[in-house]
Design a protein that fits this description.
Layout lengths: L2 H33 L2 H27 L7 H30 L5 H9 L2 E7 L11 H4 L1 H5 L1 E8 L2 E3 L12 E7 L3 H9 L3
Antiparallel strand pairs: 1-4, 2-3, 2-4
Helix pairs in contact: 1-2, 1-3, 2-3
């Protein structure tokens, strides 16, 4: 593969990561707001720091791609797309800040939270969990618990869940689903099944 092709593949991959991260942040921010979850709101703000770094690296990468054969308009379009993803991430962070600033949610929001059949959980996978070493497909978490994994946090990285994502001890799983599955998911992640 030529050097130019490698560079453009990297630009494409980085743009996808920006898109995925901004979408994830919005999902988590809305969940934080609807569930009045300070934990989820804090995750969104940490993701905002990550997004800022990703966006800066993306812009530098795109600017490094300029050579005699590239149209500046095309590069400008890529940079603008990155800016849009950054704005979405900023909006998600603003939603999360509402949760962190507010004491009690508005009474209407409280009624929505209490009436909700769904919940969002943030759990750490213990070393004794049967999930360790399994892919998400093999773990069958939705079948076992009715909960869907939204994101896996591994150290300082957030991983968009894919069927082939392997679960590791120490992973933080953020999952949403029906309230009835909450205890089953806690048992699975803690190893106390």
């Amino acid at each position: 593969m030529s050097e130019d092709n490698q560079l453009f593949e990297k630009i494409c991959n980085d743009l996808v990561e920006l898109k995925d991260t901004s979408e994830l942040m919005m999902d988590l921010a809305y969940s934080a707001l609807l569930l009045n979850s300070r934990q989820l709101a804090e995750e969104v703000l940490e993701l905002e720091d990550w997004m800022d770094m990703l966006h800066t690296e993306f812009e530098i990468l795109v600017l490094s791609a300029k050579d005699g054969t590239q149209e500046v308009k095309g590069l400008l379009g890529l940079i603008r797309m990155g800016v849009v993803m950054e704005r979405i991430a900023d909006a998600a962070a603003e939603i999360a800040e509402v949760v962190l600033r507010s004491g009690e949610p508005h009474p209407v929001l409280t009624m929505v939270i209490q009436g909700a059949e769904e919940t969002v959980e943030r759990l750490v996978v213990s070393e004794s969990s049967s999930l360790v070493g399994k892919t998400l497909r093999e773990a069958k978490i939705p079948d076992e618990t009715g909960m869907w994994v939204l994101v896996v946090r591994r150290g300082d990285r957030w991983v968009r869940p894919r069927p082939y994502t392997v679960i590791q001890a120490g992973d933080i799983i953020v999952a949403s689903g029906y309230v009835e599955g909450e205890e089953d998911l806690k048992k699975l992640t803690s190893g106390k099944e």
